[in-house]
Amino acid sequence: MVAAELxxxxxxxxxxxxxxxxxxxxxxxxxxxxxxALDFYRRFHLSHGVDWPDCQIAATAIRLGLEVFTQNVKxxxxxxxxxxxxxY
Length: 88
Known about the structure:
Layout: H1 2-8, H2 13-23, H3 31-48, H4 52-64, E1 67-70, E2 83-86
Parallel strand pairs: 1-2
């Protein structure tokens, strides 16, 4: 999901190649991340208006103990235990 969001921001083939090279150093998500994301989606989609991609990102970050760097801080406010940092 994160890879797709980053690739979607590429303006040309050169940028896409750079993003794909960058992404090659990361691990892929586990099935438990999808189940965690589904739980978040059930709990917060209607009450907080969160989208599926944000649920997937949050579930993965929480499992790995990582922070989420984003400009859309309010999109991630609903997820308990998630550390969110405003990017740049």
